[in-house]
Task: structure prediction
Amino acid sequence: MDADLPELPVDPPEVLRKRRSAKWQTYPADVLPLTVAEMDFALAAPVAEALREAVERSDAGYAMAVPGLARALAGFAASRWGWDIDPASVTPVTDVGVGVVELLRLLARPGDAVVISPPVYPPFFDWVPEAGARLLEVPLAHDATGWRLDLAALETAFATHPAAYVLCNPHNPVGRVHTAGELAALVRLARIYQVSIVSDEIHGPLVLPGATFTPLLTVPGAAEVAVSVLSASKAWNLAGLKCAAVVTASPRMAAVAGRFPPDTRWRIGHFGVMATVAAFTAGGPWLDQLLATLDRRRALLSGLLSQRLPMLTWHPPEATYLAWLNCAALGPDDQARERFLGRGHVALEPGLRFGAAGSGYVRLNFATSSDILDLATARMAASLPDAPASNASVR
Ligand SMILES: Cc1ncc(COP(=O)(O)O)c(C=O)c1O
Result:
């Protein structure tokens, strides 16, 4: 990737506040929201163009996802990751959540255990019971070098024969990009203990400079036990348009996806399919610019935190635009989050939503402008108990 790529522009907060989506509508106007995983950048031009053209055609009927979506995803995966997807093995779904839940309904019997690794994207805690299964938590391992899958603990859990493991690859909220070696070890365990893996790869396109994404299905032996769910919705900011794809690479897993309720094909967003096809086929240059921009925001945030909030600790993410900040120095549970919101007027995701391991943490979304990050960290610093009074008025 070209380090000299120009940054993506971001509108000022007063313009962003006109957006009707959750990020900019949840909090009052005096709060800076760095919460839900939406980005503040303008849409990629090919995506905006596809949506504009659809409106001009009054093209707002039901989605016709096949074969366009499958071909677009296969083309993107081949050129970006060297991953050869058979378009016939792609099943379009409404969103990643729907894909994971429908898969778990078929892979687990009622009451079966399904393993997840907190701290993890909060809906994982809901998707498992929604599918009628029982949660079995195997937290990530954490040490001074960062977060990773706890393969020894996963083996102990897999030995009790859970039906499935929901992998977050890369892992939200810690931003970890699991290595090819770690994924190979995971696949080995899954094959030994006959545990299916559902790999949520929504953040795959958002791997930042310095790390390499390994799609799970490219790991030798994974195809028999694993199925992946991908989407353009995080990397191109299309979450409200509702389109994702389940990918399989073996007859066994294709048979599972082949048993989705027939009506699921009518529940996919038509605008989502059109935007996703545009993103995967023509959105590569914009994605490169996005990754270069996020790389710089990650560095900026690092500097701002060490300067203004040195009591917070973190491992800069290898993927995503999410920073998982240890604020334990400011108190347990969600005390830091409440302080930053109540006194600093900066909204962050409360760590406890990501599981008990999130006590004392917040998740900060840095897919925004340098100005907003600057302002947000200044307000967070001004909210601290011993902040000088003159800082308290930072807006
Ligand atoms: C790991 C992960 N999976 C799924 C989603 C949501 O995907 P969807 O809206 O397609 O269900 C998110 C959103 O941030 C996420 O971080």
